[in-house]
Protein 1
Amino acid sequence: MALTINSNLMAVNAARNLGNSYNRLSSSVRKLSSGLRVGTAADDAAGLAIRELMRAEVASLNQGVRNANDAISMIQTADGALGVIDEKLIRMKELAEQAATGTYNSDQRLMIESEYQAMASEITRIASATDFNGVYLLNGNLSSDTHSGSGLTSTGKMKVHFGTANDSAEDYYYITIGNSTASALGVGNQAATSMDAYTVSTQERAQKALVGLTKAIISKDKIRASLGAMQNRLENTISNLQIQAENMQSAESRISDVDVATEMTEFVRNQVLTQAAVAMLSQANSLPRMALSLMQ
């Protein structure tokens, strides 16, 4: 190679190698500081696409867990109110039993009737007032077998969505809660007059009320049993969703996250190469000065 002044090819070569080593060093610093192997599409375009889909799945699954937990809270709210209604029905049956015996006169039986109807009115008040986030639970709004979510406010039975798609077999449940007002249970003077538990104002009607109240308690228990089964199902769903999210996050980590040990090795290698390139570039830049010694 000729000794020249205008063209220092060794310096050009050293500068190019320095640029390459510095770029790799910069990439290692970015990966180590962010913890991500795939930080940009240039790192791994296919890996980036897969990672983003997985991240979306994980986020959706975690929100699905929250949705299912909200549904459990709603069920517990309804069940708590039904527990109070249960107490009222038990008291009404106690009153019916009291009114059914012949040792009470008409005035005393009317006093019993007054409390009996007050209990029925309280059942209706509880059923009409029990709500979760503005959704009334026991007044019959959720007792329909059909559902429509096309409007701003959904109607019919409640659709609880927890999956990441829209497959009815995997992604959502319907929750139906029966009407628990006094008229729906067939107790008190808000029910039809033909219902057995309409009144306890006479001995005969009080005796019939015992049968009607048993039916009302059974109807209420069926609602509670259905809610309990759905709560257990949702709890199992939550466990499954959490496992899915955990496994999906693990898979996403293998694609996206940097292996610190491997990348640190690469960092040190690039650091040494960069330092060596800087040193050689300095030496290459000083070589043309050797031509001056020939001119003396």
Note: The mean pLDDT is 90.
Protein 2
Amino acid sequence: MKILYMGTPDFAVPTLEALYQAGHEIVGVLSQPDRPKGRGMKMLAPPVKEKALELGLTVYQPETLRGYAIRPLLEELQPDLIVVAAYGQILPPYVLKAPKYGCINVHASLLPKYRGAAPIQYAILNGEQETGVTIMHMAKGLDTGDMILSAATPIDPRETAGELTERLSKLGAELLLEAAALLERGEAPRIPQGESQTSYAAMITKEDARIDWTKSARQVADRIRAMLPAPGAFAACGADVYKFADAQPVPGAGKPGEVLGMEQGAMIVACGEGAVAIRQIQAPGKRRMPVPDYARGHALPERFDCQE
């Protein structure tokens, strides 16, 4: 089966590798264009492009799919199936209709929950105890297509978005191979999602990473791990902005945002209900470090979000 693969971030790399190792004919790989990143704004290739080149595959990086931009490419490659995993652009109808077996997507949630761009972060933000991966037939709507397969996995209460992404990417790769085999045999089901449990996970913004200390300790801890590795949950104290990692709920009481002290290598910060023990901090202009290391040379803030 000739497959055109479309993916961009780390999440999409295991699926590409799995298809390649399974012996599928990958006629091309589409990924987002190289972008400037980091302090030096150096042009960096997306992870899927790097892996595709390592495997000796041909990579295409169109700026857009609109206006029939890749129709000549589709006519040239004649893929039987398009596999999509976190590509980063909506597929227009002419792309969806091009392959013999259509387009299928590796989506990191148990659909119809958390349709959209950030299902992993929102599952953690909302305190879900379980998430998973769904392989779906792609349709015109946002993650609305019929499902082929899904698999669930528990979320560890201290697992970060980055750690969960890595696990789900491997689970998705395994599930995609099963779905591709079903399609080739003409046995792939079409399971309607239904609308009763629909929810959406919009793209994460900087404001989403701001900590509201009036929330419960569990909610604050969930926000901190949902924003790792990026953009990083933050709070201000005066003009200074701090980021945090490795937090868990603990007993404690005080004004929301008040630093109650240090305990067993963690900074204890009061929340609307309970407190959080934060073990890593990133001060302005500094790298992230364990709280005790930071405290050796700096006084801890007395209270976060303390602007009047």
Note: The helical segments are 13-21, 47-54, 71-77, 93-96, 119-125, 161-184, 217-226, 291-297.
Protein 3
Amino acid sequence: MKNSKALLLLKVSVFLIFIGRAWQHLFWDAPYRSFFWDESLLKLVITGIFTISWKDYVTSSTTDNFIQGIIRSNGILYLIAALCVITINKTNKKILKFPIILGGVSLIILAVLLTKEKFYHGAQFFEHSIQFGLPFVLLYGYKNFDQEKLILVLKILIAVTFFSHGLYAFGFYPVPGTFVDMVIQIFGCSESVAITFLYIAGIIDFVLAVLIFVPKTSTYALWYAVGWGILTALARITANFYVEFPLQSIHQNLHETVYRLPHGLTPLVVIYLIRKRTSQHFR
């Protein structure tokens, strides 16, 4: 990628995704139990191969320690990937790309687990498109990747992420209580007003997913995505910050803001790429 500003912003975005998820996995929790405690999937394996009862399996401290170990191991992987993102360049990319690839694959698995936890709602998986897609885009950026294709791929990731998010805000799926609570906390409004606000935001997300592909409206739609993506990321810490215990509030919620900031930074990458392309046309 010849656009140094876009490449730097892309690296920052991928770093934030990995470091945010590392923070989550090393200090908090992740939905791996939704798989390892799924009786319909694993009961026959546990009772047949390991010859222990399902009840003993799910109540065993050994099982819990095993799951905790997987969560922490993934946290370490994300941390290593984040450090590789900072230091990767054309010289060392052959070595450092492997932790980034593994981190990207782990993000895909995490999105699948989050989807399973949310009753297999397709939007739950695709809402994380930017997060699990950017690590691979970054690696392609270090190749002589066609700029038009790069812009298209990034636009698709943005459109799918915002459209999927809009399906929840609009009410196609049950509106998450956390969405409603955040709006109420930030604006001090009633529940009905919060739901109406989210409904309108969902419609705008749908429109955005189309307008970023229309040449005359693309830049305007992308700037909206920058603002809305950053605001929705900051909402996680703003709505859950308590003056009574500030450090605990930050430690418990900031990672959610960190790995969502790229939802606003990725459209900015596309804006830089488009500007670079336009300036080249006029030379």
Note: DSSP finds 14 helices and no strands in the chain.
Protein 4
Amino acid sequence: MHPNITKVLFTAEDIAEATRRMGAEITADYAGKKLLLVTVLKGAFIFMADLMRQIQGDVEVDFMAVSSYGAEASSSGVVRIIKDLEAPIEGRHLLIVEDILDSGLTLSYLQKNLRSRHPSSVEVATLLFKEGKQEAEVSCKYLGFVCPDEFVVGYGLDYAESYRELPYIGVLDPLVYGK
């Protein structure tokens, strides 16, 4: 375990099992449909790659980069699109793949933005859901884990661009980020 991690919440094996389960659910729900995974960089890229390999069927991917954190430990509430989708999404089935749903501010903004482009459907798959942290209404159809209200890193999740490489999800020592 990394010295700045106080405890491991979800092991690599836990994550692999959740990803298999979610992939099976998505496969069943989108059978016979072409699905576009819209992945929010950077935190969700590892999860999206693993999830995509678990989905049987016609799947494409596109990437967005949005920011509401910067180098801070909590969301600023101001969402900026840094990189938009490359292809039109009108009439397509979209699945937004997220790493973590906490305040919901970023994801709520993203859902509204994408729905304004007239896709056939927009759903959300998130690896982690921080219960009780929501400040905006967001519906999440596919969920990996309910996560305690702690600052978590690993498996793509970062603090100031560090810790993404960890194969597990753990709690970052508050002394690292100043709490």
Note: The helical segments are 12-29, 45-54, 105-115, 174-177.
